[in-house]
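We now fix the convention by which a protein and its fold are recorded. These numbers are not coordinates but entries in a learned vocabulary of local backbone shapes. A record is reproduced here so that you can trace the correspondence yourselves:
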Amino acid sequence: MKILIINPNTSEEMTKGIDITAKKYARQDTEIVSVTNKKGPASIESNYETALASEGVLVLKTSRLLPSGLWTWLSTLCSKGFISSN
């Protein structure tokens, strides 16, 4: 399985933490790639910041810059306390 994690805020440090944690709990045969939103707020604390992050997440999800192949993608939406997936 391949899992692509999109951190919706622009914090590289948070992306690294998410990546480390995901890899710690993933099965051995699971490939995990974590990327950081390039357009949006540094942190997501409100509905407004969630909306600001949305465009960048959608751009990343449809970007040709991401690894090729079939991926399950996850985007953590911190202000809502849930994870959305494809």
User: Anything to note?
Assistant: The chain is about 35% helix and 25% strand.
